[in-house]
Write a structure and sequence with these properties.
Layout: E1 5-10, H1 18-25, E2 31-34, E3 43-47, E4 50-54, E5 67-70, E6 75-76, H2 78-90, E7 99-102, E8 106-107, H3 110-123, H4 135-143, H5 158-175, H6 183-196, E9 200-202, H7 204-213, E10 218-221, H8 245-252, E11 259-267, E12 270-272, H9 285-293, E13 306-308, E14 310-311, H10 312-322, E15 326-330, E16 340-349, E17 352-354, E18 365-373, H11 386-399, E19 403-407, E20 415-417
Parallel strand pairs: 1-10, 1-11, 2-5, 2-10, 5-7, 6-8, 7-9, 11-15, 14-16, 15-19
Antiparallel strand pairs: 3-4, 12-13, 16-17, 16-18, 19-20
Helix pairs in contact: 2-6, 3-4, 3-5
Bound molecules: guanosine-5'-diphosphate, 6-O-phosphoryl inosine monophosphate and magnesium ion.
């Protein structure tokens, strides 16, 4: 029997700590594969006193013997990609040998980034808060059937195709009245594309199928989070790809029946970076305290992240949409030292209490909270305090899925596997 593909994804608004958990569990797998998103992602890994932030490259790259695949659903910016490679090589990581890229992955052009910026500027107050990496315009060209793909790097007419697409972008930028000298960007792009030709391009759906038939274990690594999904997130304040487990099927070419475990990553509280609704957001000193304690500043843009309490209706929604089979709770240490913690169990919408995430999350939602006891310092070498266990048991009962991993610090070593997890 062929092996299965486990999926690991964000159950909130991104930055849950996906990179850390992928790195921790990667030794159980032979392949780690990114299936969507692009350099809007920033996945942080910390071990041996060193911090690494990955944007396009899968988080299995530091584990010897593990293959890393950038799947067809990912969008790649050659310039940021090569920068990432240079940083990895500078820290002595042999990345080239075990890195594969799908020929079907789409390429981000400098003009995609310009279009992202122009669109955001035009929206003004209503802006999405995009990372400005060109993600939206690149996926628009993919669905609009105009895009350039990694496989085009092997064609002699790549630069002609590039120029045709740029011409189209220039016309659009003209409509936005967005004019700039892009010569330098273009030169850097062409240079990076040339450098990318030395990487191994594969028909990744076939390659993955072979791996699975040979019994190799594959972990699909999500980017962003469920509430940023293009279909099921807080539209329009979302990203432009399917971040949910179904995205692993289309983003890698894996049939639904081959999906095994779905591991949902969530923080013990909530954060969001960029605009859009956030029912449990804290606008007070406590929000600031969480931001400082959790170092809640974007890994990609450095922007301060908005912070708030854990939102169980949203987490339950993520469990439902993704078919999450187990959870990892991150950053439990950040709440240490609080007398009490609040958990949102339902919303009051137009005077009615509901535990469902409504269609329109933007207006008139008041969270209904339950207060639980806080906890003191946490240590991966010791059992969790009774109060933390009670908090987790409360979450497990509310969402019906076991919390198997608890993270109590940013380092690889600050991780506990829970044996007391709700029978899953
Ligand atoms: P990702 O995008 O889901 O991979 O998450 P990010 O790397 O963008 O953001 C998570 C941040 O939290 C990073 O700075 C991590 O180093 C840090 N982090 C992860 N787990 C923990 C934890 O349990 N405790 C603390 N204090 N920090 C953590
Ligand atoms: P990781 O993988 C958190 C947010 C942006 C913005 C919206 C759209 O590190 O969890 P985009 O650049 O995709 O057009 O931005 O989505 N966003 C993220 N927020 N973590 C991410 O990735 C994100 N990637 C995009 O802030 O609100
Ligand atoms: Mg991140």
């Amino acid at each position: 029997m062929a092996a299965q593909v486990d999926v690991l994804l964000g159950a909130q608004w991104g930055d849950e700590g996906k990179g850390k958990v992928v790195d921790v569990i990667a030794p159980d797998y032979q392949v780690i594969a990114r299936f969507q998103g692009g350099p809007n992602a920033g996945h942080t890994l910390i071990f041996d006193g060193k911090k690494h932030v990955l944007h396009t490259i899968p988080s299995g790259v530091f584990r010897p013997g593990v293959w890393n695949l950038v799947g067809n659903g990912v969008v790649i910016d050659p310039v940021t990609f090569m920068r990432e490679i240079a940083a990895l090589e500078a820290s002595g990581v042999d990345v080239r040998e075990r890195l594969l890229i799908s020929r079907r992955a789409h390429i981000i052009l400098p003009t995609h980034r310009a279009l992202d910026a122009a669109s955001e500027a035009e929206k003004g107050q209503e802006k999405i808060g995009s990372t400005l990496k060109g993600i939206g315009p690149t996926y628009m060209d993919k669905t609009g059937r105009n895009g350039l793909r990694m496989g085009d790097l092997e064609r002699p007419d790549l630069m002609d195709r590039y120029r045709t697409l740029v011409k189209k972008h220039e016309r659009l930028l003209g409509l936005y009245d967005h004019h700039a000298d892009r010569t330098a960007d273009e030169a850097a792009w062409a240079e990076a594309v040339k450098a990318m030709r030395s990487f191994r391009l594969v028909d990744s759906e076939h390659w993955l199928d072979e791996q699975l038939r040979a019994g190799k274990r594959v972990l699909a690594e999500g980017a962003q989070g469920t509430l940023l999904d293009i279909d099921f997130g807080t539209y329009p304040f979302v990203t432009s790809s399917n971040t949910i487990s179904a995205g692993a099927c289309t983003g890698l070419g894996v049939p639904p029946g081959r999906i095994g475990k779905v591991i949902g990553i969530f923080k013990a509280y909530s954060t969001r970076v960029g605009s859009g609704p956030f029912p449990t957001e804290l606008h007070d000193d406590l929000g600031e305290r969480i931001r400082q304690a959790g170092n809640e500043f974007g890994s990609t843009t450095g922007r301060p992240r908005r912070c708030g309490w854990l939102d169980l209706p949203a987490l339950r929604y993520a469990v439902m949409i993704n078919g999450i089979t187990e959870l990892a709770m991150m950053k439990a240490d950040v709440l240490s030292g609080l007398d009490h913690v609040q958990v949102c169990t339902a919303y009051r919408v137009d005077g009615t209490v509901t535990d469902r995430l409504p269609y329109d999350v933007t207006t008139g939602i008041t969270p209904v909270y339950t207060e639980l006891a806080g906890w003191g310092a946490l240590d991966a070498g010791r059992e969790l305090p009774a109060e933390t266990e009670a908090y987790i048991a409360f979450i497990e009962r509310a969402v019906g899925v076991p919390v198997r991993i608890v993270s109590v610090g940013p380092d690889r070593a600050h991780t506990l596997v829970r044996t007391a997890a709700l029978a899953g």
